[in-house]
Design brief:
- This protein has about 230 residues and is an alpha/beta fold.
- It has one domain: Protein tyrosine phosphatase superfamily (Protein-Tyrosine Phosphatase, Chain A), CATH 3.90.190.10.
- The chain has a five-stranded mixed beta sheet with strand order 1-2-5-3-4, sandwiched between helices.
- Helix 1 crosses helix 3.
- The two termini are about 30 Å apart.
């Protein structure tokens, strides 16, 4: 395996560096939980959503035709990113970084950026966060709306329990964003994009008004320890 020295100190050009990266990946990124489970779902014939892929899984996805990998996590100092970046370079996959948060209302810039992203990347593509539930979910809603032409009402099921998304925790603020559009923007005759670009779209205000449930917080923050 070849790679490059990255600022996080995971030098993948040496056997010791690779061992260190994989040890950190297994334990601190909880990659052992993803060895036999990828939470993979093709949401169209050109885009699959998954949890954080292992390098060998990226190779398998390349064999299935994937050309672009979208990393939604950020975390550029993490072992997962060092391994992913090296694997994509070795396999000839385009790695695109588009950082979103699982407990924040998307900013206007993020919504507009997502629209541009889905219009410009090479398909087929793989899109992932850590668990494949929350950030992959909100971006899948935006993909279905902007790229596939689905209404928000149709697309919002991408944030669902079948993908391991729990709307009753802090991560439910993602659902709340779209629910606010359906309650306010759609009845006013605004498209989703028009609503986002209007003064009514207030990410900080919506986050402050959102209320999670105790059991949902216990599940996402304590038991599942969602990123």
């Amino acid at each position: 395996m070849t790679g490059e020295t990255v600022p996080n100190g995971f030098d993948l050009t040496t056997a010791r560096g690779r061992r260190r990266a994989y040890a950190d990946y297994l334990l601190n990124d909880h990659a052992f939980l993803r060895l036999g489970f990828s939470n993979a779902h093709w949401i169209s014939d050109e885009l699959v959503r998954t949890n954080q892929p292992w390098p060998h899984q990226l190779a398998a996805w390349k064999q299935r035709g994937v050309k672009t990998v979208i990393n939604l996590r950020g975390g550029f100092d993490g072992s997962f990113y060092a391994l992913e970046k090296a694997a994509c370079a070795r396999l000839g996959l385009e790695l695109v970084n588009f950082t979103v948060a699982s407990r924040e209302v998307p900013s206007r810039a993020q919504v507009l950026g997502a629209k541009a992203l889905f219009q410009t990347i090479a398909y087929p593509a793989l899109m992932h966060c850590k668990s494949g539930a929350d950030r992959a979910g909100v971006m899948s809603v935006l993909y279905m709306h902007f790229r596939q032409g689905k209404t928000i009402r149709e697309a919002i099921d991408q944030l669902g329990l079948r993908y391991l998304h729990v709307k009753q925790g802090y991560t439910g603020v993602l659902d709340y964003t779209f629910e606010r559009y359906l309650a306010e923007g759609e009845p006013a005759g605004l498209s989703f994009l028009e609503w986002v670009e209007s003064p009514a779209y207030d990410p900080a205000g919506m986050k402050a008004q959102f209320r999670s449930e105790i059991w949902g917080r216990l599940l996402t923050e304590t038991l599942l320890r969602r990123e």
